[in-house]
Amino acid sequence: MDDLDRRLINALKRDGRASLSELAHDLGVTRATVRARLSRLLEAGEIVGFTALTPRDVAPHPVRGLMMLGIDGRGTERIMSRIAARPEVTAVHSTNGTWDLIAEIGTPTLEALDRALFEIRKIDGVARSETNLLLSTRKGLRRAAPPGSRGR
């Protein structure tokens, strides 16, 4: 994979519905080059698929936070699974440093966030935690154009 392949993948991550013409223009290459590179990346498994996002997928929860967790003992995998199964948890990350896990949490209200944090803290093996509210996001998913507004 070369620089052009990486740039093409990044462009598709920003806007998976971009037309071949738009991609060619943005990358400074021909449509034929984009088509060939895209085909090769798909065949090689460098791009494994495309997905559709619904408004629910991209709409942020009104209250979002990151909960850093310290785990006692060897139960990290079990605890990670229990946390990930909670409906308000959007992602769980293992990490190094002071904290063992970081959970991304989204809820409709502060009260719902407080309940979620309380329930997670009750899990056997969770030794300590610290939560930070996310106030704003500077970079995120772009809104997709309406279907049919662009051709390939």
Structure overview:
A hairpin with a 6-residue loop joins strand 2 and strand 3 (101-107). This protein folds into two domains: 3-43, Winged helix-like DNA-binding domain superfamily/Winged helix DNA-binding domain (Arc Repressor Mutant, subunit A, Orthogonal Bundle); 60-134, Lrp/AsnC effector binding domain/regulation of amino acid metabolism (RAM) domain (Alpha-Beta Plaits), CATH 3.30.70. Helices cover 38% and strands 20% of the residues. It has a four-stranded antiparallel beta sheet with strand order 2-3-1-4, covered by helices on one side. Helix 2 packs across helix 3 (31-43). The protein is α+β, with helices and mostly antiparallel strands and 152 residues long. It has helices at residues 3-14, 20-27, 31-43, 55-58, 76-84, 110-121, and strands spanning 63-71, 89-94, 101-107, 126-134. The chain has six helices and four strands.
Short précis:
The chain is an alpha+beta fold and 152 residues long.
Shape: elongated
Q: And the CATH topology of the largest domain?
A: Alpha-Beta Plaits
Give me the CATH superfamily of the largest domain: Lrp/AsnC effector binding domain/regulation of amino acid metabolism (RAM) domain
The averaged pLDDT comes out at 87
Q: Give the name of the CATH architecture of the largest domain.
A: 2-Layer Sandwich
Main beta-sheet annotation: 4 strands, antiparallel
Name of the top-level CATH class of the largest domain: Alpha Beta
Beta strands, count: 4
Task: Count the domains.
Answer: 2
